[in-house]
């Protein structure tokens, strides 16, 4: 009888092992988060991505009950910071504030240290905004047609800055070159902050900057907005009177900038749901919406699946343009 009872107990114990293994992640997720969360920004401090991340981090931290700490890791066309997230534990304690570069880097670089499609899980599209073609107030370039004329008069001499190779500012410039049939010299920086500093200082001529990065400088009069890169004019107060590049003589031109959150692939779905809910709460606060409106950002608050589909579409669209224009970041 004792032998039979012992065998029965052993069989029950063995049967419970896979059940315990299945329950363990959920128990861990239920305690989430129990320590600070790192939000990697793959750009230098001071740019549009950094500003958006810091504004979101405050409210997300309050909602999650743990601080969300912004970690700037610039360089390598956002690859350095993004790779740090790809290699992080899939536990919800590391996120990246991604931009268009996330979708186009596989087309721009022959080899990446991660597989973009397999290494990340989408959390939420934060929002979309125009890039803004800006110059210094004393620049002789006062319109898109002035820029085209200057570039044709001095092929390869007009310089345009970006926050890095493969970023929205870089591709906005390359698309402009292609459609306007001009030659300009691209100068990449390790973030929007350093690029804007050199634009203000006269080291570069123009920049297709994110609205978030240059809005304060436009408002203060330190930079002049010539045009926006979206198909329609921006509804933001500071940009509502600024024409689009398309209506300024480059038909068919359209290039959005966007921000979105990713975590490492394999992060539990319930943890992603918690982050998505906190991100939605963050973008719906009065503080964030006011900043978004000032910076021309159209806020989004959709599901992880919607964001995944959006990024796949962006990757497909720009891959074709990159190939046709023979653009490379290597």
Automatic annotation (TrEMBL):
<dbReference type="Pfam" id="PF03401">
    <property type="entry name" value="TctC"/>
</dbReference>
<feature type="signal peptide">
    <location>
        <begin position="1"/>
        <end position="30"/>
    </location>
</feature>
<dbReference type="InterPro" id="IPR042100">
    <property type="entry name" value="Bug_dom1"/>
</dbReference>
<comment type="similarity">
    <text>Belongs to the UPF0065 (bug) family.</text>
</comment>
<dbReference type="InterPro" id="IPR005064">
    <property type="entry name" value="BUG"/>
</dbReference>
<keyword id="KW-0732">Signal</keyword>
<protein>
    <submittedName>
        <fullName>Tricarboxylate transport protein TctC</fullName>
    </submittedName>
</protein>
